[in-house]
Amino acid sequence: MEICVCVKRVPMVGGTIMLTPDGMDVDTSMSGFTVSPHEECAVEEAVQIIERLGGAATGSRRSASVGGAGVGGAGVSSASVGGASVGGAGVSSAAVGGAAGQGAGGRVTVLTLGPPEAADQLRDMLALGAGRAILLETDGAEWGPVATAAAIADAVADDGTALYDLLLFGNESADTGGYQVPVRVAHALGLPCVTGIKKLTIAADEVGGGYRIEARREYRGAEEIFDLPLPAVVSVKEGINLPRYPSLPGRLRAKRAAIERIEPRQIADGLRKELLRVPAGSHKRAQILGTGTEAVPALVELLDSLGVLP
After folding, report:
1. Mean pLDDT, residues 36-63
2. How many Å apart are CA 107 and CA 129, to the nearest integer?
């Protein structure tokens, strides 16, 4: 099975958000970069699928104290607790040979659109178990969802649409949260699409041959179940699994791996950015009213001003 996972390079969150002087972009000059959490889970899900089909892994499972066993799957061995297969039997992370899918199980390809520096994020995903990386190299400017989806669809079509059995995406990116790219890619390629998935199961298609997928998501307190033939496009949400830590052999292999670079064609997006604005945050403060019984009058006055006294 051939799986392509599309990821995005996003700034790490943790500090105060600053804008560039022209107010048109987020100032990332002092930020580190990573992959969106939903998309990291998509890579982990792809690697687990290949493992279940007979491929090998390069990462190390997180401990049971962090994540425990996976959702909907059987327990895992002590060597691979935390992040067991979703919808299938647990897998062991003892194998640290080639990338996932280098053998009979298939292969995981990771693809991203971004500046040359986005190769670092692709190598991070290679270290988790992907076997191939493609960079749609840009000048670093932000592309909108229309242009991004068109570039990804072109790259997949040029690579051979029939090459991939499954296209996986994160449900939304951690920065813009547009929720659009997976659906637009599916529409451009004429493939079935489901979004917001929290459980994914691969099964043999006894009628048409090959594989089918069963995808589940939660919606308004109910569980929706979709049965799709492959190829298909699926976007997953954080929590579908617990991504593994990259192993040392995986990091070394990723460092040496070749990254395929493609110059994408940018189309008109139809959207125009006017200005970015950072909303005012809530300011909390503490006030010392006094000590002991001397603070009682001030406390009564404060409670009265808040309207909590009869």
Report:
1. 78
2. 9
Torsion of CA 158, 172, 143, 185, to 10 degrees: 30
0.90 exceeded by pTM: no
pLDDT in tens, 57-74: 555 555 433 333 333 333
Half-sphere exposure of residue 197: CA atoms within 13 angstroms, side-chain side: 28
Residue 235 pLDDT exceeds 90: yes
The 3-class SS string of the chain reads: CEEEEEECEEECCCCCCCECCCCCCECCCCCCEEECHHHHHHHHHHHHHHHHCCCCCCEECCCCCCCCCCCCCCCCCCCCCCCCCCCCCCCCCCCCCCCCCCCCCCEEEEEEEECHHHHHHHHHHHHHCCCEEEEEECCCCCCCHHHHHHHHHHHHHHHHHHHCCEEEEECCCCCCCCCCHHHHHHHHHCCCEEEEECEEEEEECCCCCCEEEEEEEEECCEEEEEEEECCEEEEECCCCCCCCEECHHHHHHHHHCCCEEECCCCCCCCCCCCCCCCCCCCCCCCCCCCCHHHHHHHHHHHHHHCCCCC
CATH number assigned to the domain covering 2-262: 3.40.50.620
Q: Which two tokens stand for residue 301?
A: 């006055």
The least confident of 18-32, 151-165, 191-205, 294-308 is 18-32
Which residue carries 């991504």 as its tokens?
A: 243
Q: Take residue 5 and report the two structure tokens written for it.
A: 């996972």
C-beta of residue 164 within 8 angstroms of C-beta of residue 74: no
